[in-house]
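Dear colleagues,

For the upcoming journal club I promised to circulate an example of a predicted protein-ligand complex. I picked one with 2'-deoxyguanosine-5'-triphosphate because it came up in last month's discussion. The inputs are reproduced below in full, followed by the predicted structure.
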Amino acid sequence: MICLCSASESRAYLLEKFGIEFEQKSVDFNEDQIVTDVAKDFVYLASKGKLQAAEKRYGSDIPLLTADSVIATAEGEILRKPKNREDARRILSLQSGSCISIISSVHFKTKAFLFTNTSATHYHFAKFDVDDLEAYLESELWQGKAGGCMVEGFCKKYIKSVDGYESTAMGLQVEALLPWIEWVKQ
Ligand SMILES: Nc1nc2c(ncn2[C@H]2C[C@H](O)[C@@H](COP(=O)(O)OP(=O)(O)OP(=O)(O)O)O2)c(=O)[nH]1
């Protein structure tokens, strides 16, 4: 059993999809305190900060798993979760017809080891249909997602090319974690 220290439905879905037994508890960490404009450093520091907060709150008797994800545009702008529908429209419009990277960092800590991994999945999207984008904004499915993005949903039909795991793009590179989770089961 491991503890997914995250409020993320996407991360819980991914662990369930891979048949990993877990409990889920949220963790409070203010990502606004992170001062960097480098996306891979942002997610690493956020994931690390969440782990430290989780250790303080839950102790370390059970293996703790934390993660953070952002989108980086081709220009290097970091896109986090949209604040509102207008922000979602702005952020998604930046991704329309563009190349982006979804970067996820994980920290997985047990009594025996600390595993960290920062991975990216790179997408080239076709231009989003305006009416389709408005319908997606209306659906509010973009809420709580880095860049308002759903690679398995709204964005899927616009994918012209992809390089990397879909799981990384959805917020948790389970494939990289699996050997370490198996080790814990021994
Ligand atoms: N279903 C789906 N979720 C995505 C996708 N891209 C990013 N996400 C989700 C994963 C995370 O829940 C969220 C990124 O926000 P954070 O890394 O700050 O995590 P979140 O605040 O959701 O939960 P946490 O901080 O771990 O309690 O976006 C995607 O393409 N599909």
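Two points we might discuss: The pocket of 2'-deoxyguanosine-5'-triphosphate is lined by residues 6-8, 10-11, 26, 67-69, 81, 102, 144-146, 149-152, 169-171 (CB under 6 Å). The two ends are 11 Å apart (CA to CA).

See you all on Thursday,
B. R.
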